[in-house]
Specification:
Blueprint lengths: L6 H13 L4 H12 L13 H26 L3 E12 H7 L5 E6 L6 E6 L1 H11 L15 H14 L16 E6 L13 E11 L2 E10 H4 L8 H14 L4 H8 L5 E4 L7 H5 L17 E5 L2 E11 L2 E9 L6
Antiparallel strand pairs: 1-5, 2-3, 2-4, 3-6, 5-6, 7-8, 8-9, 9-10
Length: 329
């Protein structure tokens, strides 16, 4: 709606028109200019700003998962951050990436078809160098990947990107799987050249090496869940979870399936380092408790139960007698 003029402003405008200070054609030209808007048919805008923001939140969650995974695998801190999220033609994306790179093709039902997670070669070689015991250096120019390098990197990326569906858990239940790897983008025709895709550029830092990982999502791939990529849907889902009161149930179910280490402690003793060096087969060590005394059952580093040694079938076993009180722990 246009700005509402006061009576004094209307009178001044009519007076200017009558005196010829302002021409009516100028208003018509301004009105015509406002109706004209440039539109590039080669860069069709098919995603709203709200949907782009939702995709940004999803991939920020994905980057946190990648940071945890690669920091553990490479035994050094690896930083992943979302640099940009934009929509562009598929052909433009293909021509923007190196001619020799790691292109991982991902299937994620119920999403349609496949999408791409492309890892720049300098990042791939830095990861490979760390896996093989090196400091994690980059190579200035990558000519080609050897068969052994491809096998190692493929196995690494297959485990890393298997959790991509978890980043979408607030939108839909998605199971992702890496199905193929390509190194030359010119041989890869995923969709038509003019098809609109969303390009998520993720910055990666490994020590002094930096590069990018690009996630390319074609419009046809995420079309089944496009209606859910809105703030209105996110708010509805949050209210529904709060109303049901079951938001803790998935966490509880995952916790119940966790594996913990349980150790039965027969006893403890201490000896000098000199005695330790002279120990031989058949020597006996005296422990700090009798054979008939209850044993401590450890969960992690905590004494949780007391038990006694026995046999179950043909296996050694420990029977739980009672739980250790907090003050005894």
């Amino acid at each position: 709606m246009g700005e509402v003029l006061s009576q004094q402003e209307i009178d001044a405008l009519l007076s200017a028109l009558s005196s010829g200070d302002v021409e009516a054609d100028s208003f018509l030209n301004q009105e015509e200019e406002r109706k004209v808007r440039q539109y590039d048919f080669k860069r069709a805008v098919r995603f709203s700003k709200d949907q782009i923001r939702s995709l940004t939140r999803i991939h920020e969650h994905f980057t946190r998962m990648l940071t945890t995974f690669f920091s553990a695998q490479l035994r050094t801190y690896v930083q992943f951050t979302v640099n940009s999220v934009e929509q562009l033609p598929y052909d433009e994306f293909i021509h923007s990436i190196p001619s020799m790179t790691m292109i991982n093709l991902i299937e994620a039902p119920p999403l349609n078809g496949r999408f791409i997670i492309e890892v720049n070669p300098n990042i791939s070689y830095a990861m490979l160098d760390r896996l093989l015991g090196g400091p994690g250096v980059e190579i200035e120019k990558v000519e080609s990947f050897t068969e052994i390098e491809m096998r190692i990197l493929t196995q690494l990326y297959k485990r890393a990107f298997a959790g991509y569906g978890e980043a979408w858990e607030s939108i839909a239940e998605i199971k992702s799987e890496m199905t193929a790897v390509e190194v030359n983008p010119q041989f890869l025709q995923l969709v038509s050249p003019n098809e609109t895709v969303v390009l998520i550029s993720i910055g990666v830092t490994i020590g002094e090496v930096s590069g990018t990982i690009n996630v390319c999502l074609p419009f046809v791939t995420i079309e089944p869940v496009l209606s859910k990529l809105s703030s209105h849907y996110w708010m509805q889902e949050a209210n529904r979870r709060n109303a049901s009161g079951n938001s803790k149930e998935p966490l509880k179910a995952q916790l119940m399936n966790s594996t913990v280490e349980v150790v039965s402690l027969l006893g403890e003793t201490s000896i000098t380092f000199g005695d330790l060096l002279h120990l031989e087969v058949g020597d006996c060590l005296t422990l700090d408790q009798l054979a008939k005394d209850p044993l401590s059952i450890m969960v992690g580093e905590n004494k949780v139960f007391k038990g006694q040694v026995g046999v179950s079938g043909k296996r050694m076993a420990v029977q739980v007698l009672h739980r250790v009180k907090e003050e005894e722990q």
